[in-house]
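Risk register update: the risk of archive-format incompatibility is retired. Evidence:
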Amino acid sequence: MKKLLLIVPSLHQGGAEKVCAATALALKPYFDVQIAIFDSANIDFDVEDIPVVDLGLPSRPGKAAKVLNVLRRGYRLKRLKKKEQIDIAYSFGPTANLANVFAGRLFSGKGAKCWLGIMSYMDMDSSWLGLFCKKADRLLCCSETLRGMIAEKYACGCAYTLTGFFDIPHIRARAEEEEASLPWQDGRIIVSMGREDVVKGFWHLIKIFSLVHGKLPDTKLLIIGKGEFEEYRKLADDLGVADVVHFAGLQKNPYPYLKKGSLYLLTSYWEGFPNALVEAMAMGLPAVATDCMTGPAEIFDGKYGVLVPNMGKEPDMDASHIAEEEKSTAARVISLLENEEEMARYSRLSVERAGVFSKEEYIRRIREWSLD
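Archived output:
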């Protein structure tokens, strides 16, 4: 059985961390799997009995400290790879990728195969991406669009597409494990999920919702994700919808909350492959999403959800200013919610599309590549 080392900055809340944890559990029957992390604080993902090695090198402020951290992480990873006789080292996201490259190439020669996970369009801005292309055995990109961009920009022949995977029966089973704690007992709930981050465009979400609620007073908005959301709470208050907007916070099991939803709305400016969007679709929620740099257009594939124009990336917390794109998106959401037949059709299409991103295909690809 080949030895596989998965490398991620932490097992705290985040897309890359979630994919890493899910990958470890999926591949456990086929590989001798270990996980290396830089910081063991606030672990959110359960990886059962898979060994987790804490390198004890969390993020540090300052440019010099960051450079030193990269070198120290690379050196400790080199020692770990050698000690455990690792066959494949697969890292997730820019900081883990950088340490993996230093450990696998600059410090220790050929050694273990070096697989790097490109998890977001924002990784395209990394000044290290050219190095990754030259030093990796494989660049595993979370979307086909992103893979094409990297292959063209860097003439990279080692870039491959590997989207996330979704186990629909498991997701639905977890949705039944507990009851979501919500402040309302009725009404139609629009759901969005993600950490508090400017790239998620939550000000657009709240403004759009305020217009929807003005037309459809029974609607509510549920935001699931880590953060204080103080500016967004104030915006909701300024817009007069604070009593129908609920910030549920970080949920280790978000599926009971998604189960309560009537529609999923994604307003991100940047994404890689938005796992939360497909998870909502797996729960049968009709989906509306911005045509951001990568992700939603590929997931919807022209028919599985409603794609709306990407909106401004600069935060706008002025409740008196509603952009034209926000108005047009609100109109599309209202139209969808008012059409029961269309809602039912998109619900069926959501489940159908989520099923394409299967665990079996994900495992098959990794096992096949491991034989190269």
